[in-house]
Amino acid sequence: MQKGILRDIQFVEKILQMTCDTLIVLDNNNICLDALVKTDNPVLNPRLQLIGKDFLSLFPYETAKIIGQELEFCRLTGQESNNNYDLPTSEQMYYFKFIIQKFDDGRLLCQYRDITRRSNMKRRLKAALTTLLEVEKEARIGHWTYNTATQQMMYSGFLNVNRKDVLDPVFLRLEEFLEIVHPDDKRKVYNFFFIDKHERQVVEYRISVPGEKIKYVVSTKYSRHLENDEWLISGFSQNVTDLIQNRIELEMILSVVFNAPYSIHANHLDGTLVFANKECRFQNHIPNSQRIFTLPISDVLKNFSSQEQWEEIIHELKERKGFYKYRCDYAYPERNIFSSECRSFLVKNGAGDEIVWTIRRDISDQLRYEEQLMKAKEAAEESEQLKSAFISNMSHEIRTPLNAIVGFSTIIANTEDAELRQEYGQIVSSNSDQLLRLVQDVLEMSHLESGKLQFHTESISLHGILRELEKSFNQPIARPNLYFHLLEDDKPVCLDRGRLLQVLTNLISNAIKFTPDTGEIHVGYTISSESLILSVTDTGIGISPDKLEDIFTRFWKANSVAQGTGLGLAISKSIIEQMNGRIVVQSEEGNGSIFKVYIPLSDVK
């Protein structure tokens, strides 16, 4: 190398350019006497004529004021000033180091060094560090190292597992740390430090501090091998208690939704499924193992037969601001469901997509109950009407024979003619019988409703019963021709004789009431191996089809003017049903009626 190069004047300028940004010489009035400018910014650059200018006039007021104070300090004390300054411009913020040295009594030698890049880097690093600390604080992250040789742990950070954060590193032995680890996790944590020597390893464990709730921690380690087979382990830990609790709560909520007794499903706006709970899968025959996430709704859910139906739901949802309540009458036989109440609503997921959630609740029992209530209401109203009609009718029916009894009883007392007294006595007796039948009908119906009706089964002759009825109805009064048809073989049957007579009497009396005197009534029976079939056929006025279902209703009368309580057929039907039998009627208006009674026989001899 050439000797004396640093003293050679021809190399001085080149050396200065290589060792500093800008070199400036100022007089005692801060006028620039000379300058070697390498800096390039809007305030100081080679394009400016610095020589002869007031150096401080180049800078903003606040910056110039501080630099001026430092220049005076150096002139008075001869000490060096070495400070950093801000240089704001319209383009950006610059930073520079300004070194001031006293050259001689009349001059100062100043070095201007641009440190913008370095300062920006420091600021960025500081901002990044601040951000990192904030993230770690928010995420509850702490850093640690563990030396297996000394069995000592150094820890700092925001894990907050022992009621506080640690900004300055603390040292503790592994045994001290293991004291706050949950007993069931101590072995796992011990293995994490000593047994599992992978360079990267993750462990989850619980922290149990007296007086505090259990905390959940995830630790990640990075290991480096040292001498003598010892390890220096470094890593970080995160307090994930909130995450675990949120996950537990979410899993609980999902479990409740999945096992809810309602059908619940979620869909994208195009209808493809996102979720279907267990009840929804059961009702729609979707196996729990089947993935549904790409399936159209009309291919999976039975109550949507087409894509158009789904689009109608979406239209209604948007019209009703994201909530739509409607009724679905699709039947699900497996659950005995025929109607459901649906509630659909829009919810945005974490990605911002709109998801349609639908909850379908079975309202079949509610509708059945409402229907029963309606029928009960109608029955009560009908019963009230019938009772009113019955009371009105009974008032008339009782008054008629009672007036005859009272009137003719008085006449008999004042009549000396024996034949007239006998005739009047028969009238009184007939009306007494009619009044008795009215009272008996009412009492009989009361017994039937209370369930106190009793049956006395005995072996009876059907021939005997029909002959008795023939004599009973063979009175010398105007009535239709009455015929009784007997089988040649009189087989006895085990039945309640009185109840059988009561049923036949009511049916025959009813036929007589609605058959003209010129008509005919036929009474007969047949016996099979299992049942007795009684029949009463008349050629009367018949019954219109719309009234066939009403004739067995209590207090109902086809003709409100006709005599009777309207209980005869109702009583007969109730007696037959309590004998495990049934009664049917065939009739055509104007062409008579046929009543048939089917009574099962437990013993036919």
From TrEMBL:
A Pfam family that the UniProt record links to this protein: HisKA
GO molecular function per UniProt: phosphorelay sensor kinase activity
Tagged with keyword Iron: no
Known EC number: 2.7.13.3
PROSITE patterns per UniProt: HIS_KIN
Matching InterPro entries: HATPase_C_sf, HATPase_dom, His_kinase_dom, HisK_dim/P_dom, HisK_dim/P_sf, Sensor_HK_Regulatory, Sig_transdc_His_kin-like_C
PANTHER family referenced in this protein's UniProt entry, alphabetically: HISTIDINE KINASE, TWO-COMPONENT HISTIDINE KINASE
Protein's UniProt name: histidine kinase
Source organism (scientific name): Sphingobacterium corticibacterium
